[in-house]
Structures are given as structure tokens and as C-alpha cells.
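Chapter review: from sequence to fold.
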Amino acid sequence: MKDFYKISEISRLYGVGPDSLRYYERLGLLRPRRDEDNGYRLYSLRDIYKLSVIRDLRTLGLSMVQIKEYLDGQSVESTLALLEREEDLLSRQIHQLQARRETLARREAALSHAREVRDGQVRVLELPDRPGVSLSEYITRDEEMDFVIKRLHKRHEERLQDFGDLSVGAFFSMEDLARGLTNRYRSVFFLLPGEGAEGDFLLPGGTHLSLYYRGSYEQNGARVRQLLDWAVAEGWTPAGGSSVYLNQVTTRHTARPEELLTEIQLRVRRPEG
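The C-alpha cell string follows.
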């Protein structure tokens, strides 16, 4: 084994560019000697060891100043502190990966369920109060919907990091629907996952009628009327408030319009007698 290595050899071995090696030298992290004949940098085995440490510490998120402080005062105590920091980082990464895995499992289960849903079937559901965050905006075109949803997500992106795992929906403008105007909405919302979540509004629980349909969102108005007609025919009374729609399979999941799946929900009171 050689005692000294050229900068090109070290660069190839560690995948570190020559400019980075020179930068480490300027910071005093590496101290290569100079070849007496040609002035080339020659890196010792000690420099190679330090380079391994530098690379490992960079993966822990340490700054170059922190790395220099560690190398200048390296001791058993500082190494133990470093190992504890690495263990903590690994624990956080494992937690993040587990959370990501759970998210993927929920998405897979939701999409698998969506494939089994019967188009046009009305179901009666008992739903709890559901907290969420909303953005009031009068929307008259489908093209506006994605933009408003993005604005809402941007407003709460610190707590709503995983867009794809959120239930997103909108409140219909029932006044417009009564006047024959379809696909008009007065706000959009995200439902917040997890127990004890706190939002800026509460989607009231209780008895709901639910109807799923596949295809273009342009059907929304007609499908709300379908659900209202079914409710009247079966003796159900709307319990006030707005009907809502929830996107179950969206353009984030498929590019085929016929695979889009939307759920219309309407809170109702049970028939008397």
C-alpha cells in the first residue's frame, strides 16, 4: 500500500471532485503535502481517513465549521456524542419511512376500495364530525378548482405535507343549484387525518346519504339532483347546510376520465314513523 496518493486518485476513489478537495484544504480539514519535483498534492493515509469522516459527517447534516471543530478536538467523548446524533437521525428516518409506508398502504386500500364501488348506488352512512381546513372562494369553472385547492394547500403546507393522502372536496352552492346553475361551489376544503386534529371548520357528523359516480366532474350538479330526488322519494329530509363532494380517484391517480371517482354526500334527517 502506498503512503501518498494524488488528487486524481482520491477523487476517483471517493467520488469527490478535485475542487471539493481543494476547498477542504483551504478550510484546514485536509493537509496534503507537495511533491518536491512537480508540486502536485499528495494525500496521506491520515488525509484519507479524514476524508471518510468528512463524508460521513456531511450525511448527518453537519456544517463544515462543525466538522472542523470535531476533527480538531476529536476525542472519545466527542465521538460518542456524534454516534448518538447519528442514532437519533436514523431513528427519525425510520419513523419517517414507517409513516410513509402507512400512507402508501392507506392509498392502496382506498384505490382498491374505489375499484369495487358501484356507480350510482345510494348508501346511508353514519359519519362523525370531521375537522378540516377550508378556503372560501366562489368557483364557477372546473379550471378554477385546482388553482384554489393549490392555494389552500399552500396556506397550510407545513401541516399538510402529503397532498396525495388528503381527502379533498368542495361545498356546492345550493342556491345556484336551485336556480338551475350547476357546478358552482362556494369553498374547497381538506379533511384532516388523525384523531384530535384541529382545523378551521367542522364538517358536521350525523346521518348522510352518499352517492358515488365515475367520470367527468361536470356530472356533479346532475348527481346532486339525483341524490336529492332519491332522498325525497324515500322520505329523507335535508338537514340543512350544503351538500359536499369528495374526490376519491382524481387526476393525481389516473389520466383516464372514465376512472375518476367522486362521492356526493348530503346530511339528512331520518324519515318519521
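Two observations follow directly from the output. The mean pLDDT is 85. Helices lie at 7-14, 18-26, 45-59, 64-72, 76-116, 142-155, 174-178, 220-234.
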